[in-house]
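Late entry, evening session. Most of the bench is empty. Finally got around to the prediction I had been postponing all week. Sequence below, unchanged from the version circulated by S.P.
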Amino acid sequence: MTSPSRIYKPGTPANGIALPAHGTTPTGTAGNGAGHPGLDEGEKRIVPFPLEHLPPAARAMAEAIARTERTPETLAGCCVLGILSASIGAGLQVKSGPDRFTRGNLYILASAESGSGKSETFRHAAKPFHDFERDMGERWRTDTGPKVETEVAILESRIKQLSGQAGKAADAIEREALRGELEQAKAALVKAKANCIAPALCCEDVTTERLAVLLANNQEQLASLSPDAGSIVNNLLGRYSKLDRTDEGIYLKAFSGDYCRVDRQGREPVLLHKPCLAALWLVQPDKIETLLAERSLTDGGLIPRLLVCHTRAMPQRIVDGGEGIPTETANDWAMLVGKLIRAFRMAEPFAIESMPEARRMLDAHHNQIVDRRIGELRDVTTYAARWNEQAWRIAVCLHAGLHGEMAGERMMDLDTAANAIALADWFADKQLRILAGGRHAARRAKRDAVLSLLADTPEGIRASVVYRARIVGSADEAHALLAEMEADGELVGKDSTPEGGGHTTRTFTKARK
């Protein structure tokens, strides 16, 4: 039985991690009427999704959606970027290092209040993707499906006939010949039955086992798309797990393209060699809190793989003079999505190179993050470790959106790398905002633990004592923590060197108020 505390219920905050306030009533709107929050009390202006970094057709569509539905550009930007990723699948990848290739599948998790227009925004962005899938399914039902079903019927009849003949065979030679024909017919039947399932481009509320089957039946590629992903989050939290634990394994494998085996009771195991899943999930704001509160999802690596943000979408009043999405804008977007699906999602994968200056820029981005992980980001290094990879993944999507079906024949340029880094950094900033409350609480807990040590050792403690007490994970962290507390006036440090010479140590005592 799954623990009830894991299941998300709308409006119920999770315990464990305090988050900054979200969803407050905005005090102003953006100039385009898209409903961006203005200056909230005690909060800096929320930086909207930087649409200028998207390819032209995607940017125009996002702007039109935000204007038409009066929703934040952040919500529309996340949706069009998610659909770009879904349209590519595993069909386009970039060489991001020696013997390393990065695909363009993203996991986007964006929040918006109920009734704020998230479903309408999602619908506009996803329409050409869903239309393509519907048309593909209809063609299969009227053309391919009947042919495959007929082939299955013929093979089953042939197998029955061969089995009867083999049973009546007069000698071993004739029996062996029939055995060979029977084996070939059965192999052909297995293949035909595998093609008997209508193709799919996306899924929504599925169990882990069902997701594995869908991937296996669709070239190991799918997009998990939902304008209200409550059920998906509950699945991740272990709604169907008999072991009372989170159930994210296949999502981890399908993000990175790692080999995956899913065993199902009473059935053959499903083997996935290089699964690829893209995700665009829209949720209510407190659902993000619920996910972050589940420590195993962070430790296991799923949460750091998410591009997560609060869109600050709020219900908007109807205004006179509203305009719909221009036909040309919608057509350009639909044409781009269709071309990408046909060229990449439905075809053999392309591997592209990046221009040297683009590669150097993305490598420099990685190195800057490493320096920060050693410093001010050491407490969230698990999250920061994914930021440069996300930049590469976003770059693949932007490259595809810029060049369409010709993307596999072009090198990734400097502007695409710069735009991808800007978007990845924007998502990283939003991630840090969401984590801010939990980071503060964790830092305070460590400081309180140090003060408790001093209560038992008033003569002072050194960094080695803090490390041995397992307050921090390394000696370097212990030194940094004590230095921060000294700088903030909570501790007083004093250096001492043995009379005969030797290593100087610094002892810390509690500062007097």
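Two things to note before I forget:
The chain has 16 helices and twelve strands.
Residues 457-510 form one domain.
Will write this up properly tomorrow.
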